[in-house]
Amino acid sequence: MDINAIAALATENSQNQTTQAVQIAVLKKAMELQGQGALQLIQAATQGAPNNPPNLGNSVDTFV
């Protein structure tokens, strides 16, 4: 094998490893942000709706 081919192969391998490491870091950050968003949605959904004033719902109008 030619020494230049070996050097090119080593460089390509190193670039691939760096690219993969960056892609994994971006994926982890995206998953972390999605998790935070999901937690915020769950917290918002579990908070009770404000109560209606006491005069609402005491009577029902019915027309026949």
Fold and architecture overview:
This protein is an all-alpha fold and 64 residues long. The chain has one domain (1-47). Helix content is 69%, strand content 0%. It has one helix at residues 3-46. The mean pLDDT is 88.
List the defining traits of the structure above:
mainly alpha, 64 residues, 1 helix
Beta percentage is under 5%
Global morphology? rod-shaped
Mean pLDDT: 88
Radius of gyration: 30 Å
Which ranges are low-confidence, i.e. pLDDT below 50, for 5 or more consecutive residues?
A: none
State the helicity in percent bands.
55-70%
How would you spell out the order of helices and strands? H
Give the total of beta strands.
0
Count of alpha and pi helical runs? 1
> Cα distance, first to last residue?
97 Å
SS-derived structural category: mainly alpha
Number of domains: 1
